[in-house]
Automatic annotation (TrEMBL):
Belongs to the mitochondrial carrier (TC 2.A.29) family. Keywords: Membrane, Mitochondrion, Repeat, Transmembrane, Transmembrane helix, Transport. This is Solute carrier family 25 member 45. The gene is SLC25A45. The chain crosses the membrane at residues 12-36, 56-76.
Amino acid sequence: MVKTYRHESLLGFFKGMSFPIASIAMVNSVLFGVYSNTLLALTATSHRERRAQPPSYIHVFIAGCIGGFVQVYCLAPFDLIKVRLQNQTEPRARPPGSPPPRYRGPVHCAVSIFQEEGPRGLFRGAWALTLRDTPTMGIYFVTYEWLCRQSTRDGQDPSPARVLVAGGFAGIASWAVATPLDVIKSRLQMAGLKRGAYRGVLDCMVSSARQEGLGVFFRGLTINSARAFPVNAVTFLSYEYLLRSWG
Ligand SMILES: C[N+](C)(C)CCCC[C@H](N)C(=O)O
């Protein structure tokens, strides 16, 4: 944090955020929409009926995995642009004559990737993202449901405080499992800049572990968990209460 602040001031912390903020609404509505509709197809219960007739954890897991799988295709290009911009550090005062940053902003970044790496370039790392999100979104929804049911009497709606706590821990639990593939995904997304860096997911895993030890698979987990708690607490609270007031 100190280094980022010294080098890039407060703005450095928000690098690459305009795109994720604009895209998060779309990505989350795809995730939660596919999740809820898959549960409807599997259990024939709507969101409202699910308190009285709770779905089995297997159904929750399958619906979460399918939701995770589908949302990857909305998330992948936005996530790639975020990673590319976050990894581009710019000093506060650029010495005169030094080259300008490679990407001038999210739109310029998207256009450059499209031109330099082709349309498929925008989906770089999407396979690692699919591997990261499919099972861990299942874990995300199962953890949330389990924690809600632990603390709520059968058939009753969980209180807002419980929804917040269950959502927060669901975020942490799923990130704990997702972090190894998150590290690999980000490396593959960055590798598009240098030709032939990795041959694929497995190659990236093996060479990262060889060079940096197994600890590499947990890089960023602490800061990600600190972020995941409030983010996912609010996400689930919004989901529950928006559906309750509209459904
Ligand atoms: C499945 N995985 C762990 C990758 C993400 C789960 C939480 C997703 C949420 N939008 C967030 O940004 O925290």
